[in-house]
Amino acid sequence: MPIPIINSIASWFLKKRMHQIELFEKYPGEVQNDVLLNLVDKAKNTIIGRDFGFSSIKSYEDFSKKVAVFSYENFSDKIELARKGENNIFWPTKIKWFAKSSGTTNSKSKFIPVSDESLEDCHYAAGKDLLCMYLNNNSDSQLFTGKSLRLGGSKTPYEKNGTFYGDLSAILIDNMPFWAEFSSTPSNKTSLMDDWNYKIEAIINETINENVTSLAGVPSWMLVLLNKIIERSDKKYISEIWPNLEVYFHGGVSFKPYLNQYNNILNNNSMHYYEIYNASEGFFAIQHENNSDELLLMLDYGIFYEFIDMKCFETKEEKIIPLCEVEKNKNYAILITTNAGLWRYKIGDTVKFTSLSPYKIIITGRTKHFINVFGEEVIIENTDNVINRLSSKYNLKIVDYTVAPIFMESNKKGAHEWFIEFNEEPNKNIKIDEIIDKELKKENSDYEAKRYNNFTLEKPKVIKGSKGVFMKWLEINNKLGGQNKIPRLSNNRKFIEKLIGLNN
After folding, report:
1. How many CB atoms lie within 10 A of CB 8?
2. Which residues contact 214 (CB under 8 A, 6 or more apart)?
3. 273 touches 216 (CB < 8 A)
4. Which fold has domain 380-502?
């Protein structure tokens, strides 16, 4: 299709969709209420709908009183029935796709339902909106003159009992219209390859000579790919290989620890970075301005949002609130009700609101991934910011990191232990432990208080990881590629001890 025609179609869609976005920005409560009542009405004759009396729910107050809160553990029996081919359990239309998610640890795999409605009205709709917002902010974009390099999961969908499971990225690729492949690279066949090591070589072969104008994928894995492409090309920068590259759409993990490395290898002053917030359970938020850390919460994707203040999360004082009651700068756990049949479901992520009109968020971490052994309440947002400043101020090339507590023993005080893999050996004159300590005090007043005069916590200790140690752990645990990620923070030493055992 000629480029001018594509641009005309895109422009028409852009104007139409931006108007719809403005509507939910102005009337968030009304839009969210409509989403909730539509979901309840559609599912009223399902098993879960009859169990919780959906037909009598006429308001959020009714919904909050009648419907239980679910985690994966107390919803998995219903998901297993659906995976065996049973219908109308928690959603009225047949669900044949399940996104397999193993999380960051060795925990048992989760199978998240993906309905036709969530594919079309959530995930694919979000992909279109992402382009809309980018083009709205960059009218001179030449995005459609080339191809998008997508880096997704490494698991082909498998059929069992008439249903399919695999990485969400694989499900999305497998269900895309045939014409979508023409604007993307690598091919669907290569994108869905199982073996990460073979796959990355195949991707390089297919993409290195293409006119790539955009990138899409998880930052950690995309960085591995880009470095390998540079090695293969014998060039110094990505800009020498793909001179028309203009934007990187990223999500899955925080971009802050990787920003400096991307700037170095891309060598492109006009490069745009656009963050998204999506998961197997749905697509939630999109960066809608250039050079912003804030993500616009998308309110019309068939997802109804609720929140729990993390200060009372899983305590007797726990209180669930709707979107209209949230406050700025508080750390909240998210609950979602979706058009794939998840009801008041705890997804395990935490966010802070930076704006209430419209509703904008930043992702702060996970409900189970933090350090609070000594009352310091350190979250991933804190440590990611520290790593970002460490790499940018001192030009340190950090591959990955994790943090765990050192517990108090006899008369010894506790501390934090940082396990950091560097791409290049840091200058010996740079006192990394002191810098981390100083920067974390700026980030977190509770940590600062516990560090006062070494009252509770000693200065942090730093272990330098051997080259490739995180990759070795991922390979051992069959987690290479795709949406798999490193656990950043832990209240125990299980993960860091495994890394220490692999370190040489």
Report:
1. 11
2. 143, 146, 147, 148, 149, 245, 246, 247, 248, 249
3. no
4. GMP Synthetase; Chain A, domain 3 (3.30.300)
Q: Which residue shows structure tokens 């009183």?
A: 65
Q: Which of 53-57, 131-135, 243-247 has the lowest mean pLDDT?
A: 131-135
What's the distance, Cα to Cα, between the start and end of the chain in Å?
Answer: 54
Edge-to-edge strands of the sheet including 415-422?
A: 398-406, 415-422, 461-465
And the tokens for 444?
A: 């977190």
How far are the Cα atoms of 112, 353, 361, 427 from residue 297, in angstroms, in the given order? 21, 10, 7, 42
- Separation of alpha carbons 407 and 417, rounded Å: 10
Computed over its alpha carbons, how large is the radius of gyration of the chain?
Answer: 23
Amino acid at 455: F
Beta bridge partners of 355: 360
pLDDT at residue 359, as a whole number: 98
How would you class 328 by CB atoms within 10 Å of its CB: exposed for 0-12, middle for 13-18, buried for 19 or more? exposed
How crowded is the C-beta side of 35, counted as CA atoms within 13 Å? 28
Domain map (residue ranges) of the chain = 1-301, 380-502
Pick from 323, 320, 469: nearest CA to 25: 323
249 in helix, strand or coil?
strand
Q: Is 417 exposed, middle or buried (0-12, 13-18, 19+ CB in 10 A)?
A: middle
Cβ-based neighbours of 86, under 8 Å, separated by 6 or more: none
List 415's β-bridge partners, or say none. Answer: 406
Q: How many CA atoms lie within 13 A of 477 on its CB side?
A: 23
Total Cβ atoms within 10 A of residue 68:
11
DSSP code at position 123 = I
List, for residues 179-217, the tens digit of each pLDDT value. 777 889 999 889 888 788 888 999 999 999 999 999 999
SS (H, E, C) 409-429: ECCECEEEEEEEEECCCCCCC
- DSSP code for 167: -
Distances (CA, A) of 493 to 13, 239, 473, 481: 51, 41, 15, 25
* Pairing of the two strands 212-217 and 147-151: parallel
Residue 74 neighbours by CB under 8 Å, 6+ apart:
none
Burial class (CB in 10 A: 0-12, 13-18, 19+), 202: middle
Residue 11 has pLDDT above 70, yes or no: no
